Each structure stands twice: as C-alpha cells, then as structure tokens.
Amino acid sequence: MSKRIVVLGAGESGAGAAVLAKKEGFDVFVSDLSGIKPKYKELLDAHAICWEEGHHTESDILNADEVIKSPGIPDKAPIIQKLKAQETPIISEIEFAGRYTDAKMICITGSNGKTTTTLLTHHLLTEAGVDAGLAGNVGNSLALQVAENPHPVYVIELSSFQLDNMYNFKADIAILLNITPDHLDRYNYEMQNYVNAKFRIIQNQTEKDAFIFWNDDPIIAREIKKHNPKATLYPFAETHEEGTKGYVENNQIIVESENGTFTMEQDLLALTGKHNLYNSLAATIAAKIMDIHDDKIRASLKNFAGVEHRLEKVARVRGVDYINDSKATNVNSCWYALQSMKTPVVLILGGTDKGNDYTEIEALVKEKVRALIFLGVDNRKLHTFFDGKINQIEDAGSMEEAVNKAYRLAQKGDTVLLSPCCASFDLFTCYEDRGDQFKACVRNL
C-alpha cells in the first residue's frame, strides 16, 4: 500500500506539495479549514487529487503517514495538536520538495528585507543567464516547480514558519539578514524561540556551503558563537570590519569572494537607503559565490526595479509625497522606513499587533513625524504608547479615512508614509490588499 500524505492548507505551497506527492506515487489528501481558491481547486482536480474545504475531516487526516503543513497554520491549531499527540511527522512544503531535487538552493531569511534580497538575488542570476526558479514566500511553489518545471538553481525566501518544519533540507547558500522581534505571538512571546527558528537556515550545512549574514546584528553575533557554523562565513557590514566580505569603502561597494573581488560605486545602486545597502551586499555576495561576471552584477544592481509595497513611491500630490510601505508588518521595518525619510512625515500605522514594542521607533517618531494616524480596529496600545509624544494623533477605521486625514494634515514638502508595524488582518485580507487600497485612495485625491 502506498504511503499516505495529507496536505493541510491548499494555498500556493499546499497545492504544489500535493501535486508533487501525487507525481511521486503517494496516496494524497488535501484539507483546508478555509475556502480554496478556484485556481488551486482546478490544479488539484487536474491531478485527480482528493480535497476538502471549510472543515477538517479528522478520520481522513489522522491516518496520515506524514503531514505537509502550510506555514500559515499555527502549532496550537487543534488538528496539529492531535497529529503531534500521535507523533505523526509534520513537515513543510520546502522540506518535502527538497527530497526530490538536487538543485542548488540559495535560501534567504531575516526579519526584514528578505523579499527584496530574494528578488534581487534572483534578478542577478537570471539576468546573467542562470536558469533559476523563484520560490518560498515569493514566486511559485517550490514543490510544483520540482514536479513540473524543474530548475538547476532555486532562490527561496524562507519565513520562520517554513523553517520551523524543515529538518533535512540544506541550503547551499544561506542568507540571514537580521533578527528583530516579529511573530512573537506564534512563539509563545519568547524571542529565543523565534531566533532558533531563524537559525535553522544553517542546519545541515557543510564546509562546502556558504553562510552570508549581517555582521553588526547583535543577536546573530551571539548565536553564531553558540552554533559554530560549519559553512564558509561571508559577513557583510556598512563599513570594513575585521573579516567582513561585503562592505562600503570610499563610496565603493566591495565584495570579496573566492571568485575575485567585486567593486561598484554605491551611488549607482537602484535601491536606496541603508537597509537596501545591506540587501544589495547580501545578494551580491551570493552572485559572486555563484561566479556571476562582475559586469552582469553591476548592470543588474543598476536596473533592479524594487519590490511592490516596500517603500514604494505612489504619487506626489500638491507637493506631498505618498509612500506605500505596507509590507512593514513589524516595528523594525518601520524603523528602516523612518530612518530613510528626509522630510517631515505623516505616518499611518496600526493593524493586528503581534506583540509589538514601539520603543524602537520612539526616537525617530519624535524626530521626524508631524502627525500620526492609527489605522486599526483596536488602537488602544498605540494610544497608550504615543499619546502626549506627538501633538497630532488621529484614528481611522478605513484606508480612505486614513488617506483623507493624511491629506489634510500634511504640508507641502512632507511625506505621507504608510508603514504600519502591524499585520493587516483586522481591516484587510493581507498586506498587499492594504497597500493596493492605499495606492487607490492616493490616486483618487
């Protein structure tokens, strides 16, 4: 009898995992507590895969030999608790897909910047002619690509939730950008649990592999001493420190690797801001390890278009710039956004709080923010922290209300910045929906 694989969650990762499992000859069943999007139903039906939506039939799930879990399902979900109690193995889609490919894996994680770095790394490779797939939190399901459209190289954005259920998978090149508090609601409000998840990116690495990381992150520095990575280390920093392989000197980006030293004028980078300097250094180190030609790297760093919903310039209305940073779903992301602002700011923040500590942005808010607009169902925590620190604070129950208030409060030469610090699920379906609504409201001004 064939091994039974149950896939929980039928989004991009779950549907892809189901297709690969079916191709490999397993008995496959897909169950999603929510509704399944029509395109994924069509994909499952096309491969004759059984599925259910809107509920979990426990008898069809608890008999699994192995479960592939969507990263969005928390461990405290009742069905996961029951599977754990009977010691059914639970893995991620990435872990499962890794069993059926020997492709080179470039894996990127971090609390902030991972999407930009993933897309930039993929851009550097593909522009140089490398056949590289894009997977994980961006691009298409890794499992689906392995099943139907395999590539010799994959660039994969990994969240802590995906890393949680990865055991034997190995990154040939691992990039860890930074670690700041995020998703603590999923880690029992224990920062170390979240840190441990991030450091799973280097598990199983050998001397032949590479570990790229930000040298000045205090948490990474502490954890590296504990983990003693086997991989070749490629630390990067803003300035040339002892041992750094990527840095800036005399306004030149410099990256040292076994494949030679890369240099480029920093001013020529398409991406601006300190956080994007780090993202560019990390991606460039990966490209050099992959032996991409310097001229190709330079051209790609100059023409990279950036990421939607990440410090995205929307419009200038009556001398006021409107910037969509909806992807800033934690406090540290907002810190980077505020740090890059050169004008007075009207800041829109708020949403579903994930255990946020706003102390990190307090000094920048006092220095740069003219007015605050709290966009959320429950803004009490924001008021408790910021009331009395900024003169103008207003609440908004919809994006239209928030943008209209920002329009009224902003003065010529200001920037209206949507950088929410929070998840979007109280008023929006996702951060993309929040950003799209912001852009639509701004364009209607």
**Can you tell me the CATH architecture of the largest domain?**
3-Layer(aba) Sandwich
* Average of per-residue pLDDT values: 94
Biggest sheet descriptor:
6 strands, parallel
Class of the largest domain, according to the CATH hierarchy? Alpha Beta
Please report which band the strand proportion falls in: under 5%, 5-15%, 15-25%, 25-35%, 35-45% or over 45%.
15-25%
Secondary structure: helix percent: 25-40%
State the CATH topology of the largest domain: UDP-N-acetylmuramoyl-L-alanine:D-glutamate ligase
**Order of strands, widest sheet:** 7-8-6-9-10-11
| Total domain count | 3
How many beta-strand elements?
20
Gyration radius, in Å: 22 Å
Shape descriptor reads: globular
The low-pLDDT segments are none
Coarse structural class: alpha/beta
Q: In CATH, what is the homologous superfamily of the largest domain?
A: Mur-like, catalytic domain
The termini sit apart by 63 Å
Domain Mur ligase central: 108-287
Keywords: ATP-binding, Cell cycle, Cell division, Cell shape, Cell wall biogenesis/degradation, Cytoplasm, Ligase, Nucleotide-binding, Peptidoglycan synthesis
Pfam families: Mur_ligase_C, Mur_ligase_M, MurD_N
Subcellular location: Cytoplasm
In short:
This protein is α/β, with parallel strands linked by helices. The chain is built from 17 helices and 20 strands.
Keywords:
alpha/beta, 445 residues, UDP-N-acetylmuramoyl-L-alanine:D-glutamate ligase, Rossmann fold, six-stranded parallel beta sheet, Protein-Tyrosine Phosphatase, Chain A, globular
